[in-house]
Amino acid sequence: MTEDEQRSERQRWLDPTSLKALAHPLRLALLERLEVRGRATATVLADDLAESSGATSYHLRQLARHGFIEEAAGGNGRERWWRPATGGWGFNDHEMIRQPGLRAAADMVVRGTLDAAHRRMMDALQTWPDQSAEWRDAMVQTVSRFQLTADEAVALKDELTEVLGRYRRTESTEAGADPPENSSRVEVHVSLFPLDPRLLSLLEPDPTAALRQREPL
């Protein structure tokens, strides 16, 4: 079995219990901070979020209980280090999240995760002028639109997943070993979804429309 296949097997697929456990503002915030930092203690995360270390410690244990995070190397008897669980997590039971009792929890998790990811991306773009030439060349933000069948979309998704898997660091690096020199934690966003014209009515009005109406002909 390849490393990518092993990682896929370790991926945490949400069930009703773990979904409800994750649908909590502080737990989502803790998980986000861990994913950005790579590893941290309850005290470090408490400082990040202006929370008590008692609260962060409790919610970190709940995240670990449901498989979202795990202990990292470097802990001692007084305080543990935590890191995101190897393999990540996701949804693979689409019928589950359609259930009325779980729809609100799924909506909170998905919206919270996407909103946080968008905020990190916008913050990163603000730092672009201050990055080194090498990292300015590496950073990219692009949006593409295609006409695809569902089968082609699945194939594209699988190919992108396979490419991302090739660039993941080994288990030892994720566990806390020294990363390569001049490397940095990076974030890659992949979203693939059908464009539904019916959703146009939900978009905010064009903020430039009023200005254009006042422009002289």
Strand and helix map with partners:
Elements: H1 3-10, E1 12-13, H2 16-22, H3 25-37, E2 40-41, H4 42-49, H5 53-65, E3 69-72, E4 81-84, E5 89-90, H6 100-126, H7 133-138, H8 150-166, H9 171-174, H10 209-214
Please report the first level of CATH classification, the CATH class of the domain at 11-139.
Mainly Alpha
Biggest sheet architecture:
3 strands, antiparallel
Give me the count of strands. 5
Distance between the termini: 67 Å
Structural class: mainly alpha
Name the overall outline.
globular
CATH architecture call of the domain at 11-139: Orthogonal Bundle
Which stretches are poorly predicted, pLDDT < 50 over at least 5 residues? 1-9
Q: What is the CATH superfamily label of the domain at 11-139? A: Winged helix-like DNA-binding domain superfamily/Winged helix DNA-binding domain
What is the CATH topology assignment of the domain at 11-139?
Answer: Arc Repressor Mutant, subunit A
Strand content: 5-15%
